[in-house]
């Protein structure tokens, strides 16, 4: 999916026409096809490095899937640098961490942001993200939501962190986002090997921030099946 030059921080792409929406729809189709075929519903999005575009990819994919009549839940389980609340213009005073600490119930944790689209913000940053995500309550929460949603996208920190391994273990599959020209082959290989070692299935790779032409500062996403 293509991101234009004036791409503002954490932008939610709402327009239907243009290269960017076309790319998002393309990725959406690939994911839906593979998910159907392999019976996948809960998908983690991770990357090799920081800032490659995981959160941006999640919110736009989720938004486009919801527009396509899929019931979608986005969970911000990046408890170190949470940003999912931003494009949806939500406050992040409470969320997943409160739920995991048993301060909120399930219903209070889930917020509707658009038709067919619900979000769980991270909540206040914890001092012990890895321990919190390791709680059985996290897996139980995700498993409970499977009944109500067609797709659940789970935002995670980069794959090297223990948090991602835990998140991956409660998801059905993962998408790796790589930043074109920045992520090296070795980094991607390490990321894939890490997933494999943890038995985390990889549904595909999104290549992000590709310059369209030599002197064109547009960026776009590209989906590559593993
Ligand atoms: N395709 C794109 N074109 C241009 N800018 C992009 C694109 N995708 C993401 N960005 C920008 O790159 C920055 C990082 O994006 P984002 O926060 O989605 O990455 P992330 O992988 O979730 O980062 P983190 O590792 O910190 O969680 C943001 O400023 C975002 O606006
Ligand atoms: Mg992020």
Question: What's the SSE blueprint?
Answer:
Elements: E1 2-3, H1 19-38, E2 42-47, H2 54-67, E3 72-76, H3 96-100, H4 106-109, E4 111-114, E5 117-120, H5 129-134, H6 136-145, E6 151-155, H7 162-170, E7 173-179, H8 185-197, E8 202-211, E9 219-224
Parallel strand pairs: 2-6, 2-7, 3-5, 3-6, 7-8
Antiparallel strand pairs: 1-9, 4-5, 8-9
Helix pairs in contact: 1-2
The chain binds adenosine-5'-triphosphate and magnesium ion.
Could you give the count of β-strands? Answer: 9
Query: In the CATH hierarchy, what is the superfamily?
Result: P-loop containing nucleotide triphosphate hydrolases
Our count of helices gives 8
Indicate the structural class.
Answer: alpha/beta
- Main sheet: strands, sense, barrel: 9 strands, mixed
Instruction: Please identify, by name, the CATH architecture.
Output: 3-Layer(aba) Sandwich
Q: Can you tell me the CATH class? A: Alpha Beta
Mean pLDDT: 90
- Estimated share of beta-strand residues: 15-25%
CATH topology: Rossmann fold
Whole-number radius of gyration? Answer: 16 Å
* H-E string: EHEHEHHEEHHEHEHEE
Low-confidence stretches: none
- Bound molecule types: adenosine-5'-triphosphate, magnesium ion
Tally of structural domains? 1
Strand order of the largest sheet: 1-9-8-7-2-6-3-5-4
Helix amount, in percent? 25-40%
Query: Distance N terminus to C terminus?
Result: 18 Å
